[in-house]
């Protein structure tokens, strides 16, 4: 009898435990999002972009040899033309989405760049040849227009509504596989991915959504079915596949660019006219900050908005138009979205004190370049013993070319010296120590001699053509 009761008790406990486990599993399943309604409602407004271009043109070409044999029939890749006559043509694909019922379509700039013919294919397989309304390579966005009416379209979400950890969904045509749906979460916001021209105007959304070639230009949705971004870039395997790192252009940038392209075909951004760098721990200490933060101005364009407002090299911007600037990458994101001619308050740190400066933001057109390059050499040497460097007087030719009032060139750096620990390199041109400009070898010597033991001081210099600051700490 005891054995029977014990067996019943064990069975009952096992049944209860199994029920609890199933209940917990069911609860977790219930908490997972259901994407079916979003896909059904929003897919009709997602389109496939088909680009025809010469073989030498841009766009997003797919190498058929890298495609597994069992997938090649899905790629809709035309056979290459035969014979030596005439330029070869190629076809590439991407994604996009309709934003108005009268035919405006958003996609990536790199999808339609250098295209001869752009075709937009709808989910019901209707096809329209598209007009390129405008291109913006700085944001990697393009606006197209097709001649159609009463089209399904997508709604752009709120500018600041997206949160890290939130579920997101992508619809597109990866590798030509039309209307593929993938989902994941927002991994991070405000990611900086500078372009080849070292510009950085897009605070990318990072996700773990599976994005592959062909998804470019497609929409990223939140669980409300609103567009929160445009899929643009991925980190890939050697073969070009997704590794779970994808990047989308946030909706506030999309809205700004699309509005300007629709109105005038080009995009003008806010422009400050400064070269900036990040503030590390050494620089933060040398400038008197409580922690590393802000964008340090290393150079100012003559007659630019910053110069006219009274900003100076060595100023650290910690707030711009009410937006906190934690890293140097934050500043272009904020400035670029401000309309040229707008007056804003800029909070800076200068000489270890906070100060507010009023700046009228300038304009940077699509074809403008803000890159500046410097080269030079010098003669006449002097050893800066406390810093551990050998320097030479900067020649007049170099000062004139770079529009400098003075400076000294680093010729060698002693191992384990303060300069070595700070990262100074031969060829660096020191133009200021702290807030004091270096006019000549004599002034450099005097400045170094007056520095206190153990002091942390910023050096302004030019390295490989780019102005920058380095924080240096003297030995006790």
UniProtKB/TrEMBL annotation:
This is Probable periplasmic serine endoprotease DegP-like. Belongs to the peptidase S1C family. The keyword NADP does not apply. Residues 1-29 form the signal peptide. One of its GO terms (molecular function) is hydrolase activity. Residues 256-352, 383-465 form the PDZ domain. It is found in: Periplasm. Keywords: Hydrolase, Periplasm, Protease, Repeat, Serine protease, Signal, Stress response. Its main location: periplasm. It holds the Pfam family Trypsin_2. It catalyses: Acts on substrates that are at least partially unfolded. The cleavage site P1 residue is normally between a pair of hydrophobic residues, such as Val-|-Val. It comes from the Bacteria. Might be efficient in the degradation of transiently denatured and unfolded proteins which accumulate in the periplasm following stress conditions. Its EC number is 3.4.21.107.
């Amino acid at each position: 009898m005891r054995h029977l009761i014990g067996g019943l008790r064990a069975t009952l406990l096992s049944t209860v435990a199994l029920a609890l486990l199933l209940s917990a599993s069911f609860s977790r399943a219930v908490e997972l999002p259901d994407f079916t309604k979003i896909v059904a409602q929003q897919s009709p407004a997602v389109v496939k972009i088909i680009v025809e271009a010469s073989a030498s043109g841009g766009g997003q070409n797919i190498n058929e040899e890298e495609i597994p044999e069992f997938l090649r029939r899905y790629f809709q890749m035309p056979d290459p033309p035969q014979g030596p006559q005439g330029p070869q043509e190629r076809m590439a694909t991407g994604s996009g989405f309709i934003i108005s019922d009268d035919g405006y379509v958003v996609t990536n700039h790199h999808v339609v760049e250098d295209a001869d013919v752009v075709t937009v294919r709808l989910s019901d397989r209707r096809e329209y040849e598209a007009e390129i309304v405008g291109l913006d390579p700085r944001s990697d966005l393009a606006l197209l227009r097709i001649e159609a009416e009463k089209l399904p379209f997508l709604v752009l979400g709120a500018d600041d509504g997206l949160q890290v950890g939130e579920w997101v969904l992508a619809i597109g045509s990866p590798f030509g596989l039309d209307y593929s749906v993938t989902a994941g979460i927002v991994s991070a916001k405000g990611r900086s991915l500078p372009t080849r021209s070292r510009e950085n105007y897009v605070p990318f959304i990072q996700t773990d959504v599976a994005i592959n070639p062909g998804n470019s230009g497609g929409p990223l949705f939140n669980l409300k079915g609103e567009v929160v971004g445009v899929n643009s870039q991925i980190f890939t395997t050697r073969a070009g596949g997704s590794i779970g790192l994808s990047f989308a252009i946030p909706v506030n940038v999309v809205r700004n660019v699309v509005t300007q392209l629709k109105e005038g075909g080009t995009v003008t951004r806010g422009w400050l006219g400064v070269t900036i760098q990040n503030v590390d721990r050494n620089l933060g200490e040398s400038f008197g900050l409580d922690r590393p933060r802000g964008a340090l101005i290393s150079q100012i364009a003559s007659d630019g908005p910053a110069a006219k407002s009274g900003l100076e090299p060595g100023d650290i911007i910690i707030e711009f138009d009410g937006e906190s600037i934690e890293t140097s990458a934050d500043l272009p994101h904020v400035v670029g979205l401000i309309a040229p001619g707008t007056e804003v308050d800029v909070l800076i740190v200068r000489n270890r004190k906070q100060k507010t400066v009023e700046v009228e933001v300038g304009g940077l057109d699509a074809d403008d370049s803000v890159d500046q390059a410097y080269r030079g050499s010098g003669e006449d040497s002097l050893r800066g013993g406390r810093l551990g460097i050998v320097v030479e007087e900067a020649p007049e030719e170099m000062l004139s070319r770079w529009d400098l009032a003075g400076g000294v060139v680093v010729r060698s750096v002693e191992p384990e010296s303060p300069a070595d620990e700070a990262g100074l390199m031969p060829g660096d041109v020191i133009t200021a120590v702290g807030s004091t400009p270096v006019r000549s070898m004599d002034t450099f010597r005097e400045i170094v001699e007056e520095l206190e033991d153990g002091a942390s001081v910023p050096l302004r210099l030019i390295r490989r053509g780019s102005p920058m600051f380095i924080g240096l700490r003297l030995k006790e």
